[in-house]
């Protein structure tokens, strides 16, 4: 679950990070950035609202939930929507409206305010055929799973030619059969 | 020393496409001293440059020109602009193929006779028999270095095969081994043995897997009788008043229109592009397209009854390590209607990397049902189903009514709907595949839907009578005697076996016929 801490105007980023940590929040919105206290990264939004970007990160995790995968991989996976929104007003509208619709369906507190994944997923089931959902889900298939840094989490070893293949590295090392 | 031929040289044989059919035919003709120009739409990418990365390789090799789809197949929904996963490069799809090289079974050449009339299917007997092809199969196996033929040892089994074999044994299957593979198990023909690298689909960086790119084509070029022109996209085949084809019009690598004269034209652009080209070559004399007096050009599109079964175990498998498809069960390949369908299927080992597993395990799938499968990616095993599908007239490659490519040529629109026989076969295969894995302790199994087609067949089919099909038993079009089809689109029916060996076999045989006809001056 991504908890989003909304900073008040006038507070410094440093102060926010401190408060965020104190509140146990994982993602903090400061100015145009989404900051992660636990993982020590920030994602500057350029076209989309930072709140939208933070919700997208939660949405990405709800679509492809892997509990062993830290938020930063999801943040990288959705970053292209912010970039595309900067170039294409129609895409910006698609994303902003899509997120607004999710927040509306979720009621007070918005989408990220729903505490259980099941609650959020039941909203997603209502919109899974929409162009908005398909744009997010479709983009994640490559955007998330094609991150080389992610592969070791799943045990996938990637490129093997430079290591001489697996002929001497366990292509037939199964022992439990 | 590739021979450069002039555009006005009307003595050359022009082959369109450089894959299993075109590349082999080009070399075979060149070896006989015949002058050949191969026009290949894609670039020439040598095997050192192949990429051990699924998406990067896909971008490097795949045929990504826009195509549309229609019909009831799930590919239409999941991959509406990618009906086929085939290659646009010198070597064609022999760069991407897995290497499985199986002869057709005798009964599969006579499906109408052996299966009888199947409602809704356009079954037809091939105008040739296994006996006709046997000497050519033998030549093809030797040329390609197929394991378990010509005293070539089988490949060693990888982890995925070991799980597969254990399951096959538990189910009592009798014919299970590491396959007949056109992948060197030891050095042969100047190429090295398999290093168990995986990434067979991304092009073999060792050159251990047979591909026309680094076997047939350089051998043909070495004779001084073969010129390959990469980046040449053929738009039209033209003819004279007598109806003989005379030249092909193509966009060269710089996008400039060229016209190459020809004594003979052989079309080998795979089962989507080949009929597209014939249809696009319509003229006043041939208003329905070249060689289409039967109306069968583009029809009877087959793609094998495919699907995959993946399974998760409680211990690691590391199934991506090693040869991608070196494992087969052949027991279900027989024709045995008591199973509820005609024809048969093969089960073959298969692994995908994590990025492609995410894209293909359950296209469109999301949520924990999907992600908990990937969470156990390192404990997965996998197999592919490849079975005979029914030719159906309405399954077809058509010219799109509105959308054109950058040269103004209508893009192909690929329609496919499963025949009930295909569905029954796939369901049987899913059940057997899942039972194999369950027998060795799978905790979860996945009947995975077909991917975009890798086996594209039948759209210029071979027939005894000119009214039933497009080409005769030599791949020569019934209507135009100096126009040939040299790829899998000639297949009358698809059989249960991976098609490449039979495409190569037909190309070797066709080369003999073309050479004979040329010296007899009949073409």
From TrEMBL, chain A:
It comes from the Bacteria. InterPro entries: TAT_signal. This is Gluconate 2-dehydrogenase subunit 3 family protein. It comes from Aminobacter carboxidus.
TrEMBL record, chain B:
Residues 87-305 form the Glucose-methanol-choline oxidoreductase N-terminal domain. It comes from the Bacteria. Gene3D superfamilies: FAD/NAD(P)-binding domain. Keywords: FAD, Flavoprotein, Oxidoreductase. Residues 391-507 form the Glucose-methanol-choline oxidoreductase C-terminal domain. The keyword Ribosomal protein does not apply. It holds the Pfam family GMC_oxred_C. The keyword Flavoprotein applies. Belongs to the GMC oxidoreductase family. PANTHER family: LONG-CHAIN-ALCOHOL OXIDASE. This is GMC family oxidoreductase. It comes from Aminobacter carboxidus.
